[in-house]
Amino acid sequence: MSKRNLLVLIGLLCCAACLAQEINIKNDTLIWEVVEVKDKAFSERISTPSEVIVYPGGEIVWTQPQVERVYKFLVEDVSGSWSHVGEDGFVEYRVKINESQGLIIFKRENGILSIDFNMKRGEKTTFPFTLFVGSIQPK
Fold this sequence. Notes:
139 residues, mainly beta, Lipocalin, 10 strands, 56% strand
């Protein structure tokens, strides 16, 4: 085997090892690349790229660069066990932002990745969105 082929093989093996690395939703800082947003109040889907970053230290940040909007949610509690995001599962974050509080649910169901907001301020629903995710990357 030539030196060049050996280097290519080593590079491919390193890439495969990185891709096979298990992403742990509760312990790793993850970037969820959002490709579409469903507004549950109006039942419409909008192609709006954005990202949601989950920090294991207690914060979830939703950034919408097209409209220059950033939401920072304080995590109060986490429930559910989802050890491998490549398989179906979910985890729920109990969060609050300003006077709104509720759940943000990260899940893969039938292979579809989504983030579902179930938030209220008093009796009023806030953040009536489901975000559809194209990919998850460790930060």
